[in-house]
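Practice problem: predict the structure.
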Amino acid sequence: MLVVSATRRYVLIGGIHKDSECMNAVRSWSSGKLRHVPLQDLFPGIERCGPIVLPKPQGRAVGFSLDLLELVHVLSAVKFTRARSILEVGTFDGFTALSIAANMGTEGKVHTMDLPKNARNNSSGNPYAPYHVGSQFENTPEAAKIEQHWADSTTADWQLFGGPFDMILVDGSHDYRDVKADSKRAFKHVRPGGTIFWHDYGHFAGVSKAVDELACDHPIAVIRATRLACSRINS
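Answer:
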C-alpha cells in the first residue's frame, strides 16, 4: 500500500484521469516554453485588490470554462487594474463574461464575441454543440453591462466592438493560425497600460506555439498553476 501511495504522488495513475479539473492543471504543462510565475510577479500588490464576486461558482461547464483558480486570478486582475472596458474573444455559455461584469462598477462594459449562429458547427460530433451562447448571463442584472457581438474574431474589424480596451481575454479558437490572428488584433486594440490574457496555454499546442512566438517581441509569462498566459502592456 505504501508503494502504491508513493507512486501515485509522482505518476498519473488511477482515477486522476477522470478528474477534469485536476487534469487541466496537469495539461497546463503539456506544451509551451514560457516561464510560470506567481500572479504577484505580473501584478505587484494585487493581494490588496479587495474581495471579488463569484455569481455562479458552481455553474461552470467543467472542462470548457476557466477553472476556479484561473477565474479568481482574472477577476482579481479586473479589480486591481480597475478595468472598465474588457473584450472577451469566445463567449461560450457566458460564464466568464458574467463573472467579469459582476466585478466591474456600473460604468464598466464587457464586450464578448462569438461566431455568428449560422457559422457555428452544430453537428452532433461537436462537443460545443449543446451550449447556448451567453445563457449564463441572460436575464441577470449583470447583462446590462455585457454586449454580445457576433463575428469571426480572426477576420472582423475589432474597431466595431469599441475600444481601445483595458483588458482582452483571448479564449476562442485553439488553432495556431486563429490564435495568431486574434493576438495580432489584441495587441492593436488594447490600451497602453492594459492587459492581455490567453486561456489554454500549455493545454493546447496551437495556443502555446502562437504565444511562444509572440513572446519573442512582447513580455509574456504564464501564471503558475493555471493555463493563463498574460502580457502587461507598457503605458
